[in-house]
Amino acid sequence: MAAVTSPETSPQPRVYFQTPAGGTTEEPEIPVRKQGRVTVKYDRKELRKRLNLEEWIIDQLTDLYDCEEEAIPELEIDVDELLDMPSDVERAARVKDLLVDCYKPSEEFVLGLIDKIRGMQKLSTPQKK
């Protein structure tokens, strides 16, 4: 709060500011942002990789089906299912089975997808405590 002295007590008006309790002029602490529940249970980098992969898949599918994202046929590429498969050959076969309605060549997409998921971790559902 500010207080102004009256002109009778001082030749020039002065403004005084009350200091906060404790009298320190330290910067207020910036609160540390806590990670959300999802990023605590899963690794943030893995979530980012997964999101980037999903965006890449959508872009590729819009090109393959030559349509907008909303018009892509109902198609679910389960990355965790692909990661559970023992070999790239089986993964490629599974993706090709999913793309049976696609009439454009999909080999480049399949190889790109297999390459991108190589080294990714499966996002298992965390157990409730």
Topology of helices and strands:
Layout: E1 2-4, E2 15-17, H1 37-41, H2 44-64, H3 79-84, H4 88-98, H5 107-117
Antiparallel strand pairs: 1-2
Helix pairs in contact: 2-5, 4-5
Concise summary:
The chain is mainly alpha-helical. The chain contains five helices and two strands; from the N terminus they run ββααααα.
Instruction: Tell me the structural class.
Output: mainly alpha
Low-confidence blocks of residues: none
Oligomer: single chain
Main sheet characteristics: 2 strands, antiparallel
What characteristic shape results from the CA principal axes?
A: elongated
Residue share in helices? 40-55%
The total count of helices amounts to: 5
Give the neighbour order of strands across the main sheet.
Answer: 1-2
Return Rg in Å: 30 Å
Cα separation of the termini: 50 Å
- Along the chain, the helix and strand elements come as EEHHHHH
Give the mean pLDDT.
Answer: 78
The total beta strand count reads: 2
Proportion of residues in β-strands: under 5%
Folded structure, characterized:
With 129 residues, the protein is mainly alpha-helical. It has five helices and two strands; from the N terminus they run ββααααα. It has a two-stranded antiparallel ribbon.
